[in-house]
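Session log. Operator J.P. requested a structure for one protein chain; no other inputs attached. Running the standard single-chain path with token output.
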Amino acid sequence: MNENPTAREQFAHDVALVLDNDRASYEAIQAAAKRLNDTYKLAEFIRDYVERSIIGALKQKPSDWTASAGTLLVAQLCTGWGIDPYNDIARDIMAELESAGV
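Structure written below.
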């Protein structure tokens, strides 16, 4: 990553760091990469996986009218990035698999 990453680059880096270091996440994403064998579809899988994980970790749901400002901020800051940062992550994973001959 460059010295002054964009928000997108930093977000993708942070997400990849967590997913690579959580065994269950790593295995789920590697299995999806092999099964899907398509960068865009893998990006969609990762985006959905991350957003479900974030929403599942929040005690209050952002759609719940009683959600606190903190819940809404976490949900807003961690979701809604679109597909681009996830495509960056998926592209790197697919390149690693390809270089490993998988």
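Operator note: The chain has a mean pLDDT of 91.
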